[in-house]
Amino acid sequence: MKIVIDAMGSDAAPGVEVSGAVQAIEELGYDLVLVGDEAQIKTELKKYKDYSDKITIIHAPERIEMHEPAAISVRRKRHSSIVLALELLKKEEADGFVSAGNTGAVVCAAVLSLRLLPGVERPGIAIVYPTLTGASVLIDVGANIDPKPLHMLQYGIMADAYARYILHRPKPSVGLLNVGEEESKGTEFIKEAHILLSESKLNFVGNIEGREIFAGNVDIVLCDGFVGNVILKVSESIVDTLFKALKQEIKSNIVATLGAALASSAFTALKKKMDYSEYGGAPLLGVDGRCIISHGSSNPKAIKNAIKVAAEFKTQDVNKHIVEELESY
Amino acid sequence: MKIVIDAMGSDAAPGVEVSGAVQAIEELGYDLVLVGDEAQIKTELKKYKDYSDKITIIHAPERIEMHEPAAISVRRKRHSSIVLALELLKKEEADGFVSAGNTGAVVCAAVLSLRLLPGVERPGIAIVYPTLTGASVLIDVGANIDPKPLHMLQYGIMADAYARYILHRPKPSVGLLNVGEEESKGTEFIKEAHILLSESKLNFVGNIEGREIFAGNVDIVLCDGFVGNVILKVSESIVDTLFKALKQEIKSNIVATLGAALASSAFTALKKKMDYSEYGGAPLLGVDGRCIISHGSSNPKAIKNAIKVAAEFKTQDVNKHIVEELESY
């Protein structure tokens, strides 16, 4: 198994990527390719045992920054870590790709370089997120902000394959995010998507409302990339805001400070359960390759888990299942 | 000041409405009209001091349930509490209206009965919500799930008047919810709305992302009713899920249980800060009348605060300011 990593992606690159890569080698034994600034990567690698037999470095003189416009930066920076890493995948010199960099740029470069799987009209970014009853999948969180109803059906089919083979759900339930449960609800776009999904072979349970996402009522939640992107960012910020506000309250009171210290094991356990880094990253579904997009603020564990997911993506041959399923329509 | 209340709206109607009404009389001294099942309302009223000089009851033999389709139920149930209450408003026999019932039915009945303010194309539901830095306004949370760019400008203008006169912000900042901050981001709809807002007299600060909503970076957040509805429901469910999960963790550990008990003052203070009931309800902006829509699970305090907001809506003559502002375009 050989996974290629954009070493320059995250907010703390390349330190986090190198540390995550070392963890992946120690725990999983994969061969890894780190693409990025060679000198910086080497400096980081010196902090660990010598894994030069497991790690190849490919120097990338350019880096696409977080806020660069995706399409332009991918076309201009042909020697960026993202573009060079994807070339390896394209040439099948690697089995999977992980980047915690500019999401738009990864999507754009992946589509340009790897192309879409046969039958797929648009790629989608799926995230695996924690709920009260385990993990669920939300797709799309931003690859396609103005999709057609058919794209939603395809997202359902792709996420279904992913949930079956990576999350090991035998018959994943699929919900369409809407403003109400009744079929008559929603925009024309949503109503048309509802019809396509109802006629599909998916285990489609109908419309679901926003409040059901984190209750874990369905295995897969479908929404357009605009809505998905907003949900993702709102959720992160609410959790952040709540913990910040609680900290403020606790700090202002000595008894509460003591209490919080005693209750800290519960906080830690909850944090672990709600921890995105457990899930490693978001698979980009629909491209002819295996790309995992990690959060810009990923820690080494998240990178390691993303590497693991990229490998499972290959082992389970998720893309083959997606293509077969799409062909059957 | 006379406020009319749909006594049959909330999940715990009419008990919650009657209790909230009594609180409003005791704290604010308004005259109130309770519309609903007369016998049930009278039974509830017996629990309190005699306020028959301040309360009028209007019997409504019908009730629109939470999950009835809005337009059909409003047309069929002409003797429902929502429809009868709004007739009082229409005849100017009351200054404002509060309902914790079927939101769609309230919007539909209000538009049919009160009509829109001159110049307004579509009504919008605004919610006032707690952030780290105080309260902000989010509009629209579900009145109009497929708006045009012009509607977004009008939502901005209406929420601006509301924030100035009810929240007392001298020059409210307005952000357009998008998937990125750059002007080039978003759907065609969002880009067109961005142009209209940029050319307006509003204190428009540009696009904002989902993560900024609860940080309180702007006074007013604009989004379409589909996105707003999802945000509202997702936010409520995350807060719920987090507290539930934390409770589970705390329960499973005796030391943590003790700690949580000691820290409870901090939890209580936070809950109060994050408490929607402090803000009473969501104003329906754009109709020629003053309607406050409260949550179906409102407590008496939320009803009382909604009554207070309906009264301020009248005192501050927000609708006059909205019409004047719209005329100036």
CATH C-level class of the domain at 1-120 and 286-318 in chain A? Alpha Beta
Question: CATH topology of the domain at 1-120 and 286-318 in chain A, which one?
Answer: Isopropylmalate Dehydrogenase
Output the structural class of chain A.
Answer: alpha/beta
Order of helices and strands of chain A: EHEHEHHEHEEHEHEEHHHEEHH
Q: How much helix, percentage-wise, in residues of chain A?
A: 40-55%
Termini Cα gap of chain A: 32 Å
Q: Tally the helices of chain A: what do you get?
A: 12
Shape of chain A: globular
CATH H level, superfamily name of the domain at 1-120 and 286-318 in chain A: Isopropylmalate Dehydrogenase
Please outline the major beta sheet of chain A.
Answer: 11 strands, mixed
How do the strands of the widest beta sheet of chain A line up side by side?
3-2-1-4-11-10-5-6-9-7-8
Overall average residue pLDDT of chain A: 93
**What percent of residues of chain A are in strands?**
15-25%
Q: How many β-strand stretches of chain A?
A: 11
Most extensive contact: A-B, 63 and 62 residues
Briefly characterize the structure.
The structure is a homodimer of 329-residue chains. Chain A has 329 residues and is α/β, with parallel strands linked by helices.
Commentary on this structure:
The structure is a homodimer of 329-residue chains. Chain A has 329 residues and is an alpha/beta fold. Chain A has a domain at 1-120 and 286-318: Isopropylmalate Dehydrogenase (3-Layer(aba) Sandwich). In chain A, 46% of the residues lie in helices and 17% in strands. The relative contact order of chain A is 0.17. Chains A and B meet through helix 8, helix 9 and helix 10 of A and helix 8, helix 9 and helix 10 of B.
